[in-house]
Amino acid sequence: MLYDLRHSDLRLRWLVTLLLATLGASYLFGAWMVGLYAGFTPRKVAETYGPAGETPMMMQMPPETTVVTEHSISMHDMGEEQHHVDLDLLVQDTHVHMPMYAVIAACLSLIALGLAIPRGASMSIIVLLFAAPWLDFAGMWLTKLVAPGFAIVTLAGGWAMALGYTVVAVLALWQMWFPRTGDTSQ
Amino acid sequence: MKTLLLGAVTAALLHITPTVVLVKREQAVARLLPGADEFAARELHLSSADSKRLHDAVGWEPPDGVVTFYLGKKQDRVTGVLQFMRVDCQHGPIELAIGYDPRGTIRAVEVTKATVEMKPWIVEALRAGLLNEYRGMAVGGEPAGATKVKPQIGAMPAYMAELIDKGVMHANAAYRLFYR
Fold first, then answer.
1. Is the CB of A96 less than 8 angstroms away from the CB of B11?
2. In terms of Cα–Cα distance, which of A24, A16, A17 is closest to A161?
3. How many domains does chain B have?
4. What CATH number does the domain containing B148 carry?
5. What region, left, alpha or beta, does residue B10 occupy, with left being phi > 0 and alpha being psi -120 to 50 degrees?
6. Model pTM?
7. Interface pTM (ipTM) of the complex?
8. In chain B, which residues have their Cβ closer than 8 Å to the Cβ of A26?
């Protein structure tokens, strides 16, 4: 390990604890937001990112003459529209979120570097932390461009993100604040 | 480390803030189509020629090529028409609901959605009476709500008022060209 969180200065342990708490809170709200706008099942994710919610391809080409259709609807139908991420929004989402995900993965990786765990385990955690956002967005793009079945990749990415955070948070908090006797210099 | 921090700050600054609902769509429908007990959606998939007509008129056309009019009816008579209109800017989208009475003049306008960042600017513009400027307006007229409220509000609320003017102008053009 590059440094040892167990024997680190109290200020650093506080920093790591508060960073983990803040990231944990943001992850909880992230999960809430996913529940509100996309859902946790492959079907819901496919509906949000896949082509099903978009204007059909045949309507992408303007008709020869303007086509008018009229159908009865209820007040409820005019309410909140189904949240759907179209191509433009997905470009924007990817552009905005990927850098932030990279920063979060880097922060958690820096914490992982201070954990008293085998080198291979540390490497695996770092891979997991960076693979998760890649899986998340790869799933969204594949769902959009290839097939709705790839929604499962996005779900895997989301769960991998939660797993990576949980592993780092549990190990770090345990090692920083509940060291074995003789483990800490303070 | 410096690059990392700079990247984080840039990402935070570029982030378009989340959408907030200012008026629920159901509330907007109730206010803009009062008394209606039946509703219909009239969807127009515009031809290239009609898209061009709209673009020539107001410099805008719907990105998906579809204009939707929501008709409010009572005993099979149309009591009003409503359009939801989205206006985009670098701070995010604004959604307006524009209601017309059976004579074809604007009954009222509601701002239904904005972003967290834009909300206080929009609220300031609305408090200055922006929406009153559209009531009773003929669809052929040029919306000038922003000009009226500008002396009483700050620069960003004035910019929001201009965007709302623009949304009303787009809706009016669609109504004028394709509803009547």
1. yes
2. A24
3. 1
4. 3.90.1010.10
5. alpha
6. 0.61
7. 0.79
8. none
